[in-house]
Design brief:
10 helices; 77% helix; 4 strands; alpha+beta; FtsX_ECD; 347 residues; 2 domains; elongated; ABC3_permease_C
Length: 347
Amino acid sequence: MKSSATSKRRQGAALKTSRQAATKPADDKTPRRGARSQQTRFSSRLRAWGRHHRSMAWDSFQRLVRYPLGNLLTMLAIAIALVLPAALWLTLDSARLLDAELDESATLTVYLALSTDDAQALRIEEAVNAEPSVLETQMISAEQGMAEFQQSLGLDDALAGLESNPLPISIVVRPESVEPAAMQQLASQLEALAGVDEVRLDLAWVERLRNLAELGRRVALALGVLFGLGVLLVVGNTIRLSVESRRREIEVVMLIGATHAFVRRPFLYSGAWYGLGGGLLALGLLGLGNHWLSLPVAALAASYGASFSLPQLDVTGSTILLSCSTLLGWLGAWLAVTRHLSSIRPQ
């Protein structure tokens, strides 16, 4: 009897141990299954969110294609509002290149005394090159100066009768900095050198051109802001009419629990499509204008003995223009829809 009781106790302990061993893995797997289920729910929601965005983008594009004439006129109005700031941008870009060339042409002319011979002129040029704010120098002899003077004025016969050359040896100095204060300081230092008669510095025309360029930049910025507001108004008015035409549909979906973000989404894509289409039309208008004006501008530049071509938008500029137009269309749609959704009360 005693042995049978002992065996029963052993069997009960073994059965209990087996049950604990059987239940323990299940308890360990419970948190993993919960984490997996949460991850699955998040991924399914993300896929549903992406599907809805693709559906709304395609649906809004189909609505634009369904009424091509009216929507094309809206995009054309956006394109016209974008062409002028973009054209000014291109003009200022070419002006920046011109400004860089002007910086290279900003020089000082050091006139030596008439009694200076070639050996003294070389020593003076070495002293000028020793200045830390001087990039390079070029010596012009008296004979070279007279030849250039005769060629520029066309007075060969009149100047040929002169008994002596009245022009001195000169040194053209290209400074390291083209700032007016730095060039004035360099001119004062060069005038103090022995054998230097005069240092000629003329920056008035460079300053005028820089002031005009700065004025152009500010005008372009102001026009860009004004025409950007015009794009917002055009897109906002178009989206407002679209919201009013679908008012009943919006009320129904809001009654069944749709959020403002859900309702706003198709209109935002419509605004983005308007902006993108307007940007593409603006690029086309800029290309046509460039092609139309390139020949007369080239002929005018050739008549002055120069070569000039109208600037064009590169890949970076085209991407910036399309991005700005799309963003303006999206922002105009967001403002219009947000304002009108606050006034819609489902009944």
